[in-house]
Amino acid sequence: MGSSGLAGRLLDPACSLEGPGWLQRHLLSGEFDQLRDFSIFESNFVQVTRFGEVANKVTMGVAASSPALELPDLLLLAGPKEDRCLQLLGLFPLQFVELFVHDASRQQLKVKLCTGRAFYLQLRAPAKTRDLEFGQWVRLLYRLRFHAGQGAVPFTQEEWGDEEGDEETDGDLEERERDWRDQLGVQEARLDRRPLNSGDSDSTGPAL
């Protein structure tokens, strides 16, 4: 299936439930020239502990670094700053990340870095669209898992009761990114760390 298939539709901002999300508009603002043309499939989440206690708010998206790619190859994480600002916290190659459906009934995903560190994200969306939006993530997840059989991104359904003690709850994504990059020597785009004030662009996006 080419980029016009399931993954391609999910990465097209025009096909999202309410148009381009806040992270997409953040990149379109021009502060990140190397990322502004990326199509992103994104959602807002709350970071939770393994048992569902809320820690902080996160926006997560996946993107393809080239229009020629059939599937996304990048994971983006962003978080709120003071005064309704958004800050891009991490840009990770998906080959070094595992995504799981942690708890479908609570619409929770698990993100695990290859260092063994993991965190849990619960979808935060309007009630009328929440099921549909989570379903989009699940379909994309399994599409990527199928592709992983050919040596691509490893995505799977989490097995219950595994990986005790791997959870992080401090919510410090910037610290995780620095630690991960230092350990892996991963080449990443150089990102301008200045947060984007939502008032500088279309402010109709969700407030984190």
From TrEMBL:
InterPro entries: GARIL-like_Rab2B-bd
One cellular component (GO) term of this entry: nucleus
Compositional bias segments (type: Polar residues): 198-208
GO biological process: one example: spermatid development
Residue ranges constituting the Golgi associated RAB2 interactor protein-like Rab2B-binding domain according to the UniProt record: 91-146
Region (Disordered): 155-208
Composition skew (Acidic residues), residue ranges: 159-174
PANTHER family, A to Z: GOLGI-ASSOCIATED RAB2 INTERACTOR PROTEIN 5A (PTHR22574:SF5), PTHR22574
Family classification: Belongs to the GARIN family.
Name of protein: Protein FAM71E1
